[in-house]
């Protein structure tokens, strides 16, 4: 049939064009990949050449530095012998280390003039001197008192005398005169001498030189790192960092300090003041094994000027969350030589820390708790973990329960803004602070499964404008209680399963407006401005203040009001009180138990804790402290992250899109199953038959669109089609009544057994190949069932009048088999007693109209 031949040739041409197009697309992609690899190789080559030049300069500087170092060592020993003064033992170990040939030249000790003291900060009277606990400076954060900075005085005494040390507050980053470490903190950073310019940490007080004032020849202390413990300052200087809106908007000045295995950045206001503040804008832990320091290319900073590019370097930390990019910081040094110095110091310090096995402690491991495309995450105000597979989210539209493993969303409570969630599993009750009036609502446990809650909920009428609430048991074996704070009033309710679920027990008044509420060793603790107190139950004795007025070392709290953020029991007899500027350890009577205080690197926004660690949230990220040793153990540089529950396990990261972050640690391990998440997910909330339940899945239209996009990719499309391996059983028939037949043909051996000649003739082989078209286009094939195929073959066999021999020797000039010849094939397969056609494969048993 000419029309059929024309259609078939058109389809073959179309198939050839598709194959050529696929090959062309694959070639273009391969070319793009080669170009990308070439660009990377060029960039790596340029970077390698710059590093080679830097290493050559470093080698020359090392020789000069070693000579200068030997001279300085001789002079230092001669001065110390004359004055009869000796540095602490750990300083001697530093000198010995840095005299080794493998010394990094920029980490050597440099003379620092101790006479350069910070500016005066105020006129608050100083508190009495404290007896120092000698902790050998293990922590970089050391306490202090809100007194003014020490005045520079030129008084000289005829005879040497001891220092007159008192707690001081410094208004700019200051280094300890003894250990050279940065004095971290917002206030009360350390001791200062009232006569001379000596400044030190509280833990360094015992090692202070006994001579006051310090002689001029001894006023210069070496600056360096104790490589055994990572204490000391390696380098400091002024740099520029991008403005918050990016490099395109320009650069802003900052003060950078490499101290105690961390890189501190302090913003400098754009006003006339050139001194940085004491609140850190960013802290990066250099003990991070994946932290890297490198130069940048012009393509990396497209908005920077060409003259600035040689002075820019990048500091990149490890990837905190698998789906989240790593924290990267661009730094613009004052000159190219200064930039090389910064890079060399940071790289050398990393190698020293690795050599001495000073690794960072991973207390919190970050995971993404659920898919970021869930729309209710953006409006989440609070959250809690219900069990291993469910979390409750309090949003601006109500309470939702998310089943993280099944992608089921349950709308548990009505459309009211939820500020806090408290669970009372003992009585199967959920307490919420919600609504415009911030009232406490009680809901039965059944609302978590999607049951109606409007008739079963209970509202506590006296809790309007509630700031905070907590739950617990006030006495062993007693009932579960809910405690709510409204201004200064603290109300206690007994919770039960029977409606109305609550019974008011008593009401007490706090010393001031309640800022924090919690349970400490089965006692109710309230936090208010500059104080904490243990409230007594109704009819018992008066409240016990945890900031005792009889302790003179705590009087500064009354002079300088601070917000109360958190309180946590430490051991059997201690309590850590966290204020907005520092943390203080006290005993059960409210007296100071440690002179060591916790210093915040930046202004804290919130505090959370478990039995072993304190987590402090600030503008630049999260800092983790060991409750027992007061050591600063971990820094998470994630901006705009805040806790959603009291334990700090669920957090909201205000990125784009907002992400729900789960902090996994030893105390929370196994509390929540971490689901697999992906970026740019197309999942949507699909309503089910229940009006309170939704399925979070990809819609059918979006799923089909994704399949279409996949099919457009020639490489992926070729992978979806299996390779052609054996087509002996396929026969492509010509046009009939609108249908074509797929039938089984005998193999070559079967055909030869039916042939009268002992060996197959060339004509029979070519005939078999003419029956099979190339595996390029199968749209003309109609797949029949075994029953319909058998009926069709019998019909063709009965109407055929040709012999069996004509099938085995068809004309080689024919481009395709005719219907009659294929009918003879059916006759042969139907009536030959020596041949039985194999059954049709299962995957061919489909029907499709052409």
Task: Compute the average pLDDT.
Answer: 76
Roughly how many Å is the radius of gyration? 39 Å
Low-confidence stretches: 82-158, 728-733, 736-772, 777-782, 801-837, 840-850
**How would a textbook summarize the main sheet?**
6 strands, antiparallel
Secondary-structure class: alpha+beta
Amount of beta strand: 25-35%
Q: Mind telling me the CATH superfamily name of the domain at 234-355?
A: Pleckstrin-homology domain (PH domain)/Phosphotyrosine-binding domain (PTB)
What does this structure look like?
GO terms for molecular function: ATP binding; metal ion binding; protein serine/threonine kinase activity. With 850 residues, this protein is α+β, with helices and mostly antiparallel strands. Among the domains are: 110-223, Wheat Germ Agglutinin (Isolectin 2), domain 1; 234-355, Roll (PH-domain like); 748-844, no CATH class. The protein has eleven helices and 43 strands. The strands form eleven sheets. The protein has a six-stranded antiparallel beta sheet. Helix 9 (786-799) crosses helix 11 (819-831). The chain is flat, with a radius of gyration of 39 Å. It starts with a helix and ends in a 19-residue tail after the last helix.
């Amino acid at each position: 049939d000419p029309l059929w031949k024309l259609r078939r040739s058109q389809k073959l041409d179309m198939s050839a064009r598709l194959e050529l197009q696929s090959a062309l697309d694959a070639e273009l992609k391969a070319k793009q990949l080669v170009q990308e690899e070439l660009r990377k190789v060029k960039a790596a080559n340029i970077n390698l050449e710059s590093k080679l030049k830097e290493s050559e300069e470093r080698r020359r500087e090392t020789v000069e530095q070693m000579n200068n170092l030997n001279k300085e060592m001789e002079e230092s020993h001669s001065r110390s012998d004359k004055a009869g003064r000796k540095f602490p033992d750990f300083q001697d170990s530093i000198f010995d280390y840095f005299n080794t040939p493998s010394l990094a030249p920029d980490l050597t000790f440099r003379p620092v003039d101790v006479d350069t003291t910070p500016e005066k900060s105020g006129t608050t009277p100083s508190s009495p001197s404290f007896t120092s606990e000698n902790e050998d400076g293990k922590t970089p954060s050391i306490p202090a008192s809100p007194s003014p900075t020490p005045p520079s005085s030129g008084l000289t005494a005829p005879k040497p005398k001891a220092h007159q040390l008192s707690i001081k507050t410094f208004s700019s980053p200051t280094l300890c005169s003894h250990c050279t470490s940065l004095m971290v903190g917002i206030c009360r950073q350390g001791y200062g001498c009232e006569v001379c310019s000596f400044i030190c940490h509280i833990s360094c007080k015992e090692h202070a030189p006994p001579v006051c004032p310090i002689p001029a020849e001894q006023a210069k202390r070496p600056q360096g790192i104790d490589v055994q413990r990572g204490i000391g300052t390696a380098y400091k200087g002024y740099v520029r960092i991008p403005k918050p809106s990016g490099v395109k908007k320009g650069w802003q000045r900052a003060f950078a300090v490499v101290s105690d295995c961390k890189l501190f950045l302090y913003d400098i206001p754009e006003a006339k003041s050139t001194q940085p503040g004491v609140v850190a804008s960013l802290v990066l832990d250099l003990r991070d094994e994946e932290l890297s320091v490198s130069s940048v290319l012009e393509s990396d900073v497209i908005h920077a000027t060409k003259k600035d590019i040689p002075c820019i370097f990048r500091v990149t930390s490890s990837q905190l969350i698998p789906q989240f990019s790593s924290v990267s910081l661009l730094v613009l040094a004052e000159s190219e030589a200064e930039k090389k110095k910064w890079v060399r110091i940071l790289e050398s310090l990393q190698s020293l820390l690795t050599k001495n096995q000073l690794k960072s402690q991973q207390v919190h491991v970050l995971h993404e708790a659920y898919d970021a495309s869930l729309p209710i995450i953006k409006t989440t105000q609070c959250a809690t973990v219900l069990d291993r597979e469910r979390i409750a989210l309090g949003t601006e539209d109500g309470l939702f329960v998310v089943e993280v493993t099944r992608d089921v969303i349950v709308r548990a409570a009505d459309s009211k803004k939820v500020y806090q969630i408290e669970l009372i599993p003992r009585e199967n009750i959920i307490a919420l602070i919600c609504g415009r009036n911030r009232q406490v609502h009680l809901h039965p446990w059944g609302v978590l499964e999607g049951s109606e809650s409007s008739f079963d909920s209970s509202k506590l009428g006296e809790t309007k404008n509630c700031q905070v609430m907590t739950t617990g048991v006030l006495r062993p074996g007693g009932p579960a209680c809910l405690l709510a704070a409204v201004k200064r009033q603290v109300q206690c309710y007994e919770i039960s399963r029977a409606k109305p679920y609550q019974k008011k027990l008593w009401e007490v008044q706090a010393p001031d407006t309640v800022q924090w509420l919690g349970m400490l060793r089965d006692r109710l603790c309230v936090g208010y401005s500059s104080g904490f107190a243990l409230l007594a139950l109704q009819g018992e004795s008066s409240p016990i203040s945890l900031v005792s007025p009889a302790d003179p070392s705590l009087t500064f709290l009354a002079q300088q009001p601070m917000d109360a953020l958190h309180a946590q029991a430490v051991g059997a007899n201690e309590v850590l009180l966290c204020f907005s500027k520092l943390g203080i350890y006290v005993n059960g009577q409210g007296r100071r138990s440690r002179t060591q205080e916790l210093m915040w690197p930046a202004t804290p926004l919130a505090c959370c804790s478990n039995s072993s660690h304190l987590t402090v949230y600030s503008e630049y990220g999260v800092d983790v402290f060991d409750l027992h040793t007061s050591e600063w153990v971990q820094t998470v540089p994630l901006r705009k992250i805040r806790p959603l529950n009291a334990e700090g396990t669920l957090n909201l990261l205000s990125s784009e899109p907002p992400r729900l972050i789960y902090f996994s640690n030893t105390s929370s391990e196994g509390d929540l199953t971490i689901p697999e998440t992906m970026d740019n997910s197309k999942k949507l909330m699909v309503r089910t038959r229940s009006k309170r339940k939704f399925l979070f899945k990809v819609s059918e239209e979006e799923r089909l669109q994704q399949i279409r996009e996949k099919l457009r990719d020639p490489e992926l499309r070729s992978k979806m089609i299996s390779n052609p391996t054996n087509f002996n059983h396929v026969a492509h028939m010509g046009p009939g009544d609108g249908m074509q037949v797929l039938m089984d043909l005998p193999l070559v051996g079967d055909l030869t057994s039916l042939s009268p000649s002992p060996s197959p003739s060339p004509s029979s082989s070519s005939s078999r190949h003419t029956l099979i078209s190339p595996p390029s286009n199968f749209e003309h094939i109609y797949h029949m069932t075994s029953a319909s195929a058998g009926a069709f073959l019998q019909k063709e066999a009965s109407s055929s009048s040709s012999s069996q021999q004509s099938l085995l020797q068809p004309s080689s000039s024919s481009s395709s088999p005719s219907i009659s010849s294929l009918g003879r094939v059916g006759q042969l397969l139907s009536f030959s007693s020596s041949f039985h056609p194999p059954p049709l494969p299962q995957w061919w048993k489909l029907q499709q109209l052409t």
